[in-house]
Design a protein that fits this description.
Elements (H helix, E strand, L loop, with lengths): L5 H13 L3 E7 L2 E7 H6 L1 E2 L31 E2 L3 H16 L5 H34 L10 H4 L4 E5 L1 H21 L4
Antiparallel strand pairs: 1-2, 1-5, 3-4
Helix pairs in contact: 1-3, 1-6, 3-4, 4-6
């Protein structure tokens, strides 16, 4: 069974499809603000504004408040592509493509692509955790800022979903199947 391309190609194809599912949940004080798909992490995404999406911040139904809620996205709301997510996606697609070749060199390339893609996902994990920690570290202790007292109570967390972990293990499984397939070549 390992001498065929079916197990490795199928596993890589599944891993690529898993990038279409949420990888990250962004929460504020335990309330879910947004989930971000792996593909969105790789290509960039817009942060949702708190306005009408958030029932606690919806002023449209508040008596005495006549403000229209507009959803606008400024340049600061646009998150740039994460290089680790982009590398993981490109390597997963390359691994899936290389699985269809019938030679040892291509299978070795697919094995390397699977391992490097999984390593890129680990880099993504640490990069996002570092980015969230550094973006709120300076804001909560700034005494000159009027918002600093309010930011002390805000707890922004980023949790990785099960789909992120399943993608990681699918990439490693694809690399393992490539390794087993390499052993059948003479």
């Amino acid at each position: 069974m390992f001498s065929t391309k079916v197990p490795s190609a199928t596993t890589f194809f599944i891993a690529v499809l898993l990038f279409l599912l949420p990888f990250v949940d962004i929460k504020c004080s335990g309330m879910k603000l947004q989930d971000v798909k792996g593909f969105e992490l790789a290509t960039g995404f817009n942060m949702k504004n708190g306005g009408s999406d958030m029932p606690l911040f919806d002023d449209a139904n508040t008596p005495g408040v006549d403000r229209p809620i507009t959803k606008t996205t400024s340049k600061s709301d646009r998150q740039q592509p994460n290089i680790f997510a982009l590398a993981a996606l490109i390597l997963a697609v390359a691994g899936a493509g290389l699985c269809f070749a019938n030679n040892k060199m291509a299978t070795t390339g697919a094995l390397a692509a699977g391992v490097l893609s999984a390593v890129s996902l680990v880099g993504l994990y640490f990069d996002i955790k570092k980015e969230v920690k550094s973006s709120f570290a300076g804001k909560s202790g700034d005494a000159g800022n009027k918002l600093s007292d309010g930011l002390k109570d805000i707890n922004i967390t980023v949790d990785f979903t099960a789909w992120y972990y399943i993608t990681f293990f699918a990439l490693l499984a694809g690399a393992f199947f490539c390794y087993k397939r390499m052993q059948t070549f003479k």
